[in-house]
Amino acid sequence: MALIVQKYGGTSVGSIERITAVAEKLIATRAQGHNLVVVVSAMSGETNRLVALAKSLADPPKAREFDVLLATGEQVSMSLLCMALEARGCPARSYTGAQVHILTDSAHTKARILEIDDQHIHADLAQGRVVVVAGFQGIDAKRNITTLGRGGSDTTGVALAVALKADECQIYTDVDGVYTTDPRIVPEARRLDKLCFEEMLEMASLGSKVLQIRAVEFASKYNVPLRVLSSIEDGPGTLIAKEDETMEKALISGIAFNRDEAKLTLLGVPDKPGIAYQILGHIAELNIEVDMIIQNIGADGSTDFTFTVHRNDYKKALEVLNKLATELGVREIQGDEHIAKISLVGVGMRSHAGIASTMFKALAHYGINILMISTSEIKISVVVHEDFLELGVRALHTAFNLKEK
Amino acid sequence: MALIVQKYGGTSVGSIERITAVAEKLIATRAQGHNLVVVVSAMSGETNRLVALAKSLADPPKAREFDVLLATGEQVSMSLLCMALEARGCPARSYTGAQVHILTDSAHTKARILEIDDQHIHADLAQGRVVVVAGFQGIDAKRNITTLGRGGSDTTGVALAVALKADECQIYTDVDGVYTTDPRIVPEARRLDKLCFEEMLEMASLGSKVLQIRAVEFASKYNVPLRVLSSIEDGPGTLIAKEDETMEKALISGIAFNRDEAKLTLLGVPDKPGIAYQILGHIAELNIEVDMIIQNIGADGSTDFTFTVHRNDYKKALEVLNKLATELGVREIQGDEHIAKISLVGVGMRSHAGIASTMFKALAHYGINILMISTSEIKISVVVHEDFLELGVRALHTAFNLKEK
């Protein structure tokens, strides 16, 4: 008998039929003797409906009130799920973030969880109830309603699993696990049985939308096994856990990619201390997040400095750099918003050499020009022209034979 | 400078346009120097939408979860109203029933308010904020979400006015006040400037749908002046307050009516102690509410016993009486579900004779047969065939000259 926290996303509770299906799945799992705590998102479409109402009154709407509004979405789905369970004779009880005291900071619309009261939940479980908790929401110390930001229900699930010392946190979604890469690009992409937290973090931050980064970080920090599963089809899904001996000994676990970035290059930057800070300080002041940063020392005592930002921030960043050019003594500023980033991820890299050269060889074979390279312990990322994204991903998937286990 | 509690019903906050109009009205009232606490219902249509969702999953749905679901309706409208206020530079803050600790008993779907925490609200008012509170909802001692039943937002408004010692509780609705009778039946019906609580209670319990009986009782008990106003047009509305010297010295304030009842008559009931209890005890066991009860002693030592019930309960009541007939020694049982009740209401009756005879004369003039008569200190009710309802109401409105002030 295990204590399992299950999280169902908006699509999984998106209609009366889907809610009924989830209720029946829960009852079957409970019949196997497991204790269940369920976290639900708002029914798909509901959050968008509420956002549209708010925006038609005020844009941006007052953050405190926006959170009060959005929090109703999960409250609706949690109560409906409990009704479906109770109607089938399964005792159930729903709780808002406030009711189980999911204490957060006061950063409305992007609050962070500080503490959860597990007393109510343990008491209900002891009485044989399924406990259903609203995802995405909490309260601050003054009992104001807060929300955790888009996808925050994953974080609620993991935080509950941590607080309750659950055996596993299962994230039900509309895909049946984490794949070696996006099957829409590589049809023979393979579902991974197991990944370690570090790999999932790289995959998530590189564009795999299956899990929220914050939720994976949280699970990693407290070592709670996470499992990604389909709410539609039965299957083992993908387990994300601490790296261990039983872990698949693959060189490469997956290929992530991202076409949301743009790159900016400053050519002929005077090579003196503090110059990187001068450049990026001005970017940070505009609240623009920088992803990759590369600096090469040139022969003439000057340096070339390249970084990437989100494509939405490209124009703003280019503008500030053009203004700074003279002040910084930069020779030229170049920009490119038609780039894509492709990354190989795998803990196997730690102990294996030659991965990078295999990667570069595969890309060269198809005539794909590499614009930037960046590496970390378990990741190699390259930036290429966006036109070559799909071709590059397919070339790498084949080169590393990822369709075979 | 006054402290005013205003309650807006579902139609008044039924769309973005209406919410905007309410926000502007509030800002204008606040500019006159008043402190405002606002109670809102769910947007019109929203409660029905939620009920339909619930009923498609379980019928009846689990009461605890049904309350959790319905409570989201007011949470949506309160946050939207605050956004509209804040967007216009008016500081505002919304609170759910749980947040201002509207403590109720645990009777889900029909809970009663026990206590309200006024600390938060007073603190916000002191800081110049408009406070917006969700109507219709509260929490019980175990922090379960409860609701007060349909129309419960009126009760929330009055309860808040009592707790905050407000100067007036204003109920905004889609009519501009309480009328001498329903203007759909009598076009020259007149809006009343003032009514006393007792009159309003009689009017409400006799079918006038403007205010919830419970809210009027609450206001009367704690002597909080109530005012019914239109949220669409400006106007003085109708003030409902304690009877006093300044009260309009009318004989009759209004005419209420009701076509939801049916009558049952037991002829030739043995005239012995306990017989009324024997009859009505069986009716009460079926949870059927009885309205009027009339008993006449006959010449032959037997008695005739007539009472009215809601039309929905008529068949059930007739069935049980037919079963009881022999046991009770009753000669005959008659029923009529085509009746209507017309009532004259007015505190003036206390000190004036001749009201009843004027009433009966007016009805006789139009050949309207009176089937039952029942009186109280400030009310005379007659039961007639339902076909004569409109004619009877018009005849009485004219006979008592109610169109003139």
From TrEMBL, chains A, B:
ATP binds at residues 7-10, 173-174, 179, 184, 209-210. GO terms for molecular function: aspartate kinase activity; ATP binding. One of its GO terms (biological process) is homoserine biosynthetic process. One of its GO terms (cellular component) is cytosol. It catalyses: L-aspartate + ATP = 4-phospho-L-aspartate + ADP. InterPro entries: AceGlu_kinase-like_sf, ACT-like_dom_sf, ACT_Aspartokinase, ACT_dom, AKii-LysC-BS, Asp/Glu/Uridylate_kinase, Asp_kin_monofn, Asp_kinase. It comes from the Bacteria. Substrate binds at residues 47, 74. It is an enzyme of class 2 (transferase). Keywords: Amino-acid biosynthesis, ATP-binding, Kinase, Lysine biosynthesis, Nucleotide-binding, Transferase. Its EC number is 2.7.2.4. Coiled coil: none annotated. Pathway: Amino-acid biosynthesis; L-threonine biosynthesis; L-threonine from L-aspartate: step 1/5; Amino-acid biosynthesis; L-lysine biosynthesis via DAP pathway; (S)-tetrahydrodipicolinate from L-aspartate: step 1/4; Amino-acid biosynthesis; L-methionine biosynthesis via de novo pathway; L-homoserine from L-aspartate: step 1/3. Belongs to the aspartokinase family. PANTHER family: ASPARTATE KINASE (PTHR21499), ASPARTOKINASE (PTHR21499:SF3). This is Aspartokinase. It comes from Candidatus Thiomargarita nelsonii.
